[in-house]
Amino acid sequence: MDKDTVKTYTSEKNRKIAETFAATKLRRQTQIPLTADLKVNYRSLNAIQRESLPMIFVEANRMKNFLLSEIDKGYTPKYPYEEPEEYITEEHLNYLKSLSSNLDAVAAKEENIKEDDGFDIFKAKPYEIDTIKYWTKGYMKKDSEYVEYKLKYLKTYGKKSVVDALQSNISGLHTLKKNGYKVGKIKYSSEYTSIEFKKKGFGFDVNVATGRARVQGVKWFKVYGIAQFKEFKQIDENYEMALGTLVRRGKDDYHLIVTVYVDKTKYLKYKKEKLESKKEVKEDEEIVGIDFGCETTFTLSTGEKIERYVEESEYLKNLQRKFHRTQKGSNNRRKLLLAIRHQYQKMEKQKNALAIEFVHELSLHHNVIVI
């Protein structure tokens, strides 16, 4: 293949990408974004999926810290608490932009691979940033070694998410610094909690009919909350899935947050019809007032007292006591922190359920509620 042919192919491909981007940007002006929270059914995962899901976040965290260490090379502060004035520079931005562009090219290569019966795109060989370095037992700790590590679970779209997030953070600090604000250094992280997967069908996918989803690196898994897409279909039959964000909220608690675009006009019409349907004459039209108290959770103007509260469980209190006895930076402390976070999330869900139940009871018999 001669040089002229390569240039023609590149320019033709870039032209198509630019046209697609322009068409999408124009279409988004008439659309509105909505989100669907899909909870991963952890019990239905097989052994490979249970290993892959947490390791995606582990590798994303290692990759972010490795990139930060690469950026930090060559700068040694004169004083322990000196603000790193030379930290955010054009060189750093160019370095991250080059990584992002390389990953864009890799993603384009993967998209050009057509899926057939004998090929699984999730088994595609990772490109570019496939080897990093990390401290085995924490930064500069006793018996800790700085070793090479080959990324096995984090694929191209996940890598690109890490690079884009880091680039966005540094660009924001760079802009603040140019505007005269005092900025500091981006710190190393102990965990990574969310990874974006772009492009439905490649980075992520959701099968509404079977109630399953997938992300790059983890094959199809069952999810809860698929009924949310039925509502999207009622709003707009031609809704578009644009982004899938894999989130880790606690121990064995994973969610796929899917960003969906629907037509703005159809959405406003749907909301108006839904609001009008609720304005039906109720059996009891009296006005009721609510007072929030200390001894009693709610006191109605009718004199009725209602108790609605969620207490911390003994299990949570025991976890907190154990947590304060652990050593900072240890694996036991990290595991206990995840377990405590999971318990607080359960409490939050219980509070939300009680609030929804309480509001529903009041709205059944009263048209006007005064707080």
What is the strand and helix layout of this fold?
Layout: H1 3-28, E1 31-40, H2 47-72, H3 90-112, E2 131-135, E3 146-150, H4 156-178, E4 194-198, E5 204-207, E6 212-215, E7 218-224, H5 228-235, E8 240-250, E9 253-263, H6 264-278, E10 288-292, E11 298-300, E12 305-306, H7 314-325, H8 331-365, E13 369-370
Parallel strand pairs: 10-13
Antiparallel strand pairs: 1-7, 1-9, 2-3, 4-8, 5-6, 6-7, 8-9, 10-11, 11-12
Helix pairs in contact: 2-4, 3-4, 7-8
* Average of the residue pLDDT scores: 78
Helical content class: 40-55%
Order of helices and strands: HEHHEEHEEEEHEEHEEEHHE
The CA-CA distance between the termini, in Å, is 75 Å
Counted beta strands: 13
Largest sheet: 7 strands, antiparallel
Structure in words:
The protein is built from 8 helices and 13 strands. It is of the alpha+beta class and 371 residues long. The protein folds into 2 domains: 3-265, no CATH class; 284-370, no CATH class. Helix 2 (47-72) runs parallel beside helix 4 (156-178), helix 3 (90-112) packs antiparallel against helix 4 (156-178) and helix 7 (314-325) packs antiparallel against helix 8 (331-365). It is globular. The model is unreliable at 74-88 and 113-127 (pLDDT under 50).
Tag the structure with descriptive keywords.
2 domains, 371 residues, four-stranded mixed sheet, 13 strands, 8 helices
Outline of the structure:
With 371 residues, the chain is of the alpha+beta class. It is 45% helix and 20% strand.
